[in-house]
Design goal:
OB fold (Dihydrolipoamide Acetyltransferase, E2P), alpha+beta, 3 domains, Dihydrolipoamide Transferase, Chloramphenicol Acetyltransferase, 9 helices, four-stranded antiparallel beta sheet
Length: about 400
């Protein structure tokens, strides 16, 4: 027997959650084949088979929390190439249906595609409930679930007492579900609480007239995509504006280490990404050295790796400043939480037509609120306000960003 062990998970990561077994007990295994996926607070780790054989046992189930070097199961090396033993009473197995060739035009999440391939579900027949009609894993599960058999008429329910007595335990249990937190969700919760408790958290706001940047993007987006293969969004413009503002106000890009302030003379720009596994913040390395097209390419690349669960530890470490965009989900204004141990985070929001006073006239302009949450221990209110003013000026006069 060969033990399947939890491998080293990365610097400072000591535990993970068993996310998904790809093999059942008794299944034949090839050397190097992935047996199980582990989810840490940062990345998904695939555990391969060290030798060929058969999966003799699974010591840990999906949802279990494991530590480095824990035993996940065992491989029977002597079972390599031998047929699986079926119970005497079991019917002869039928050939598994070939997985349907998936229509590449169907927009779906990576986890949904994997499950659909394994279960033989044609994604083209699944109704997507995700943003923009994207087929998610729960959509595939719903498509696999047979319709429930008709139920007998329910017995009359006694009216709730007028004195406000709580419902019975039976009734409550049918209206609640309990789910154990994954390692990643627990770590996100811990980090958010740490940011609130370990920093002097404060937020300041400003607003941007998006007229100029919208006109520029509209003018160059088709040419940019045709000549450079880059789909230009507003995020790279904000990223460039932020890197220039950080150069002007270096304390916003600093970090506290004991009783010292560490000033970073580079910008590793974190971009908050809402993935299927939860919120992650991969970062674009040396964003201050990139132009808008370079930033756009790198943001698209790390965001794709995040959604495909392909992020590396390098993607997730070393960030110095973060941008989060709640506007893509419709948020009009919010107070983002600092990505500790960083000392500031820039929040973007929905662009909305609003009446403003301009040159003594009331006009309708596309306006966006922006927010800077910062650690007041090392960033004074004046610096925070002037940082946002700098971002506002650059975005309202985008040609000025080309001078740097």
């Amino acid at each position: 027997m060969i033990a399947i062990k939890v491998p080293p998970l990365g610097k400072s990561i000591t535990e993970a959650t068993v996310s998904r077994w790809l093999k059942k007990e008794g299944d034949a295994i090839a050397a190097g084949e992935t047996l199980v996926e582990l989810e840490t607070d940062k990345i998904t780790v695939e555990v391969p088979a060290l030798k060929a054989g058969r999966l003799a046992s699974r010591a840990k189930g999906e949802g279990d929390v494991v530590a480095v070097n824990d035993t996940l199961g065992e491989i029977d090396e002597s079972g390599a190439g031998a047929p699986a033993t079926a119970p005497a009473t079991a019917a002869a197995p039928v050939a598994a249906a070939a997985a349907p060739a998936q229509d590449s035009s169907v927009r779906s999440a990576p986890a949904a595609r994997r499950l659909a391939d394994e279960a033989g579900v044609n994604l083209a027949t699944v109704a997507g409930t995700g943003r923009g009609g994207v087929v998610s894993k729960p959509d595939v599960i719903a498509a696999m679930t047979p319709p429930a058999a008709p139920k007998a008429p329910a017995a009359p329910v006694a009216p709730r007492p007028a004195d406000g007595t709580r419902e019975t335990r039976e009734t409550r249990e049918t209206r609640e579900t309990r789910e154990k937190m994954t390692t990643r969700r627990k770590r996100i919760a811990e980090n958010l609480l740490l940011a609130q408790h370990a920093t002097a958290h404060l937020t300041t706001f400003n607003e941007i007239d998006m007229t100029a940047i919208m006109a520029l993007r509209e003018r160059i987006k088709e040419k940019t995509e045709k000549e450079h293969g880059v789909k230009l969004s507003f995020m790279p413009f904000f990223a460039k504006a932020a890197t220039l503002a950080l150069k002007a106000f270096p304390s916003v890009n600093a970090q506290i280490d004991g009783d010292s302030i560490v000033y970073k003379h580079y910008v590793n720009l974190g971009i908050a990404v809402a993935s299927e596994a939860g919120l992650v913040v991969p970062n674009v390395k040396d964003a201050d050295r990139l132009g808008i097209l370079g930033i756009s390419r790198d943001i698209a690349a790390v965001a794709k790796r995040a959604r495909d669960s392909k992020l590396t530890m390098d993607d997730l470490t070393g960030g110095t400043f973060t941008i989060t965009n709640g506007g893509v989900f419709g948020s009009l204004i919010s107070t983002p939480i600092i990505n500790y141990p960083q000392v500031a985070i820039l929040g973007l929001h929905k662009t909305q037509d609003r009446p403003i006073a301009l040159n003594g006239q009331v006009v309708i302009r596309p306006m966006m609120y922006i927010a800077l949450s910062y650690d007041h221990r090392i960033i004074d209110g004046q610096q925070a306000v002037l940082f946002l003013v700098k971002v506002k000026e650059l975005m309202e006069d985008p040609a000025s960003m080309l001078i740097d």
